[in-house]
Amino acid sequence: MNDDLIKQLETQIKQAQPKPKLWTPGQTLRISFVNIRGDVSKKAIYDIACEWLKYAYLHFELVDDKDASAEIRINAFEEGYEYSEADWDDEDSNDIDSNMTISWVPDDPNSAADILRQTGSILGMEIAQFHPDATIP
After folding, report:
1. Domains defined for the chain, CATH in brackets
2. What is the value of pTM for the model shown?
3. Per-residue pLDDT tens for 48-58?
4. What are the distances in angstroms from CA 34 to CA 16, 26, 105, 107, 126?
């Protein structure tokens, strides 16, 4: 491919990406879990997500599970937990749209990295490939 065609395609891809929602500086974003069991796992996931607060002028507040009004609604599946039919048929969970889905494996650095990446995305961080100076194919 020639360089002009590559630049044209890159521009089209960048324009197709949805623009991130901008949060108000200092805003408190409420976090609710939609479908995960275990307070230890919730706290671990929440603590990892809070790493972003070192770099963003925002605050997080952990609210009750299945709070449809929360700005961040996490649907997390914990490895090793036996999910029953009732977990999937929970009417309260089915009515709530999550905006972050993760697979949680305690003590797995890949799970922590996924939580950081997904939280960054919700906060409005763009994928590295779309940075104007990126040379990532």
Report:
1. 25-123 (3.40.390.10)
2. 0.70
3. 999 999 999 99
4. 29, 25, 17, 21, 25
